Amino acid sequence: MFSMPQRALAEVFGTAALVLVGPGSVIATLTLAGKAVPAVTEADLLGISFAFGFIITALVYAIGKVSGCHINPAVTFALAVTRRFPWKEVPVYWASQYVGAIIGAFAIWGVFGANASTFGMGQTHFAADASSSYFLQAALAEALGTGLLIFAILGIVDSKSPTQLAGIVIGGAVVGIILIFGPVTGASLNPARAFGPELVQAIAGGTTFWSQYIPVYFVPGLVGAAAAALIYDFLANPRLVARPIVEAVTHEDSGARAAAG
User: Fold this and answer.
1) How far apart are the first and last CA of the chain?
2) For the chain, which residues make up each domain, given as ranges?
3) What predicted TM-score, i.e. pTM, was given to this entire model?
4) Contact between residue 200 and residue 122 where contact means Cβ atoms under 8 Å apart
5) Looking at residue 165, what is its pLDDT?
6) How far apart are CA 63 and CA 189, in angstroms?
7) What is the pLDDT of residues 6-26, one digit of tens each?
8) Are 197 and 105 in contact (CB under 8 A)?
9) CA–CA distance, 98 with 5 (Å, rounded to integer)
């Protein structure tokens, strides 16, 4: 069993890596696009979605055995709601994820310099003057997208599912979800991922969209995640035997097994 400091540090590192590579790929795309119109094409969106998917796949296998690789407050919340994760540890995980997201956003600024602020630090947002109906549309997109992600996570870590595939399935789900919801909200799917770039963009003196954070990226993400987890449990009952990611990607060391024999 890993200690809480180890797990907290894993969540900080994992979320920082996610924000650096995921939103960072947005800045890289816009930097390469220059004055091209449109700045981000469907092909670019595919590339960005794969950047998110690949880093999440790598992180599931790298730190899944340590902390469960939540790297997302919505994931932690959904697991707590369905009693897969202790509520008393939620504040530590959330704090670690938000700190990691901020560190990752600062890393984007450090790597891309002025371009990071110019191109929005990889923020997830939509038009500042969007109508109230669009806010509802965006909130629904985030709720559905995050819910689908949680559904995929719970499905693959169920003990009835194929072993060794957790990272691939979760990463692939992220790719598909971003391709659908990316044009609507930027497909945050993660309240910490949305917060980090927004805060660092504010520090850098760039344009921010704080009014969108709570009603679109925070609350709908938590609601969608919890609803998906509850729906999954209802569908899986009575054969529900679920494992956290830490068990799904952790297996007995073959060397130790051989030595024991």
Assistant:
1) 24
2) 4-252
3) 0.88
4) no
5) 80
6) 20
7) 999 999 999 999 999 999 999
8) yes
9) 16
Pick from 217, 215, 207: nearest CA to 186? 217
> Maximum distance among all alpha carbons in the chain?
68
CATH 3.40.50.300, applies to 4-252: no
Tokens found for residue 251: 């297996």
Q: Is 110 exposed, middle or buried (0-12, 13-18, 19+ CB in 10 A)?
A: exposed
Rounded Cα distance between 51 and 55, Å, is 6
pLDDT tens for residues 88-107?
999 999 999 999 999 999 99
Dist. CA 61–CA 51, nearest whole Å: 16
Residue with the two structure tokens 């002025």: 114
113 Ramachandran zone, left/alpha/beta (phi>0; psi -120 to 50): left
Residue 133's alpha-carbon distances to 115, 118, 136, 137, 139, in angstroms, are 32, 28, 5, 6, 10
For residue 166, what are the contacts with CB-CB under 8 A and spacing of at least 6? 60, 61, 64, 156, 157, 245, 248, 249
Q: What distances in angstroms separate CA 157 from CA 154, 210, 220, 248, one per listed residue?
A: 5, 34, 24, 6
